[in-house]
Amino acid sequence: MATSFEKYQKRRLISSYFSVVISIGLVLFLLGLLGLLVLNSKRVADHFKEQVPIVIFLKENAKEVEINQLKQSLEMADYTRYANFVSKEEAAEAHMAEIGENYVEYLGENPLQDNIDVRLRADYVTPEKVEEIITELKSKPFVDDIGYDKPLIEQLTKNVQRISFWVLVVAAIFLIIAILLINSSIRLSVYAKRFTIKTMQMVGATKRFIRRPFIWKSVRLGIIGSVLAMGGMAAILYYLNKTFPELGLADDTILIAGLFVFIFLMGLIITWISTYFATQRFLNLRTDELYY
Question: What is the domain range of residue 258?
């Protein structure tokens, strides 16, 4: 009979540990995903900013040497990601391929102009900085006009600022929720052994001696949960990086490594602190208070 009871208690204990590990792992995994979102939100926003085209239309009498000088100066400028010269013939071919109609033959001439297609670096894609760049470029005597989507840049700048703010707010809230959930799991695990704690105290064991095995057990569970969470994060990051390689989500290895270390330390610190205060609570209770 005793053997059956011992087996039942052992299965119950393993089930309790399993539940704690899964709870810690799941919470840290979700926290890690949110961390990946926070770290890469600027990278994703920068990717979309750098897709906004600025087209410099050149006059018919623009000399080749002037065009080359402008292109070279743009390529060397701090604000330029890349600059590409497109002749009016190339522009016409691309346009005809897009609409599926030879409008040059119909019109008898090519109405398009030579142009330089420019993409700016993300830090310079703001209404104020773009206006400064446009003003500078328009001062060139051989530049006819400059086309860009001003409302898109304004809207993109506002949305990026708004989204960045709320991502940080949600991250802070979720961090608090993660701490509370892990703390609850640890407290329930310790609660199941409250009578063992009180028995050890009654036979003369010190509080430090009683706390030590509970803390080490919880820390080991926290390590396992952290490793599971980091494994899930690595799988998600690998999948996203393969699916969207242009975003370069895994390029900043130092920040990614820092996030993984943060998740690992969170698993250790939260379980240690939660176990310490949970055991301390039951150590300070009277025997008759353990039943409530």
Answer: 2-47+157-291
In a 3-state reduction of DSSP, which class is residue 232? helix
**What sign does the CA torsion over 262, 264, 267, 273 have?**
negative
Say how far apart CA 145 and CA 158 lie, in whole Å: 26
**At 248, is the pLDDT very low, low, confident or very high (cuts 50, 70, 90)?**
confident
pTM of the model: 0.63
Residues 219 and 115 in one domain: no
Query: pLDDT tens-digit profile of 74-131?
Result: 888 888 888 888 887 787 777 767 776 665 566 667 677 788 899 999 888 888 898 9
Q: Clarify whether residues 76 and 140 are in a common domain.
A: yes
Same domain, 9 and 92: no
Two structure tokens written together for 223: 């390590």
d(CA 167, CA 240): 19
Q: Which of 216, 197, 217 is nearest to 207 (CA)?
A: 197
Residue 205 phi, psi dihedral angles, 5° rounding? -70, 140
Q: How far is 115 from 123, CA to CA, in rounded Å?
A: 24
